[in-house]
Design brief:
The protein is mainly alpha-helical and about 200 residues long. Helices cover about 45% and strands about 5% of the residues. A two-stranded antiparallel ribbon has the order 1-2. It starts with 13 loop residues before the first helix and ends with a helix.
Amino acid sequence: MGRIAGMLKVTTTISVVVADLQQIVNRIKEPDKMLRNIASTLTGVIRDRVHTQGKASDGEQIGTYSESYMKVRTGNYGNSGRISKGKNKGEVKNAGVFSKGPQKGQARPKYNRTNDTKVVISLTRQQENDLGTNVADPVKTEGGYGIGFKNPENWEKSQHVEKLYKKPIWNLTKSEETLVQQIAEKYTEDAITGENS
């Protein structure tokens, strides 16, 4: 066997390595980007779960709308206006007018909702459009971000429906908790590799 002709020489400056490690630690210690990503992602996921799928935090349906409430949602009252010609003949055109009370004779609002009876906690879409991500400023919450309602009235509605249907609706589901963990792990991996610097 022959001899190795030369030696491998490795040189490094420990201060460069320490500086690189410090940058990684700093990126992980200042998780603003990660928290903002988690909050904005979960806002969309929660909005879809509650206001489209109609599911509570346990993954089950929130509930079922009553027959009388479905008239309000669809505008399908006895005196609703109907389409008289064409392929949509007989379908509801408008919600008719109030037949009693202080608004008697005035047009009822038509919300153009489907006949689906699953509870989605949305009639005018005002509450679901108000759900969002807010930086808690000037008083910072732990982490600085939260998901909630900008309008206190919508917060009160959210608490009312939980009491009405006797189940948590706005808590995270198991899959949403897993999503938080996945986003945090990806952020940490990217911080180590320098992809989110």
